[in-house]
Amino acid sequence: MTKYQKKPVVVEAIQFDDKAETIIELQEKFGIDPVRVSYKDPDNPILIIETLEGEMRGSVGDYIIRGIHGELYPCKPDIFEETYTKVD
User: Fold this and answer.
1) Quick check: helix, strand or coil at residue 75?
2) How many CB atoms lie within 10 A of CB 23?
3) Rounded to an integer, what is the distance from CA 76 to the centroid of its chain?
4) Which of 4, 28, 75, 78 is 20 to 30 Å from 13 at the Cα level?
5) Residue 87: what pLDDT?
């Protein structure tokens, strides 16, 4: 078996928290328009985003990542924190 190491990649990410500032940031920085949030369960709003694989859903606390080809996708906070470190 051959082993592989993931290449270092810098991505942009916004943590979804269902606040007006975050909705505006998703629109302005990621070009999501309209930002779609489902409130079927008012205590657990769900961000709905179109990805290369189809419609995906992000929960409050999830990071919305713009990948190296401009693709958007949600990532759970624990996976995000294990995978990425903040850069300046």
Assistant:
1) strand
2) 17
3) 9
4) 4
5) 86
28/45 Cα distance (integer angstroms): 21
Alpha helices by DSSP H, listed for 1-88, are 20-30, 77-83
70: which 2 tokens?
A: 């401009």
For the record, the structure tokens of 52 come out as 């290369």
Residues across the chain: 88
- CA 48, CA 57: separation in Å to the nearest integer? 5
What mean pLDDT comes out for the span 5-12? 87
User: How many CB atoms lie under 10 A from the CB of residue 86?
Assistant: 5
14-71 pLDDT, tens per residue? 999 999 999 999 999 999 989 999 999 999 999 999 887 889 999 999 999 998 888 9
The count of other CB atoms within 10 Å of the CB of residue 32 is: 19
With vertex at residue 84, the alpha carbon angle to CA 53 and CA 45, rounded to the nearest 5 degrees, is 55
- Give residue 19's identity as a one-letter amino acid code: K
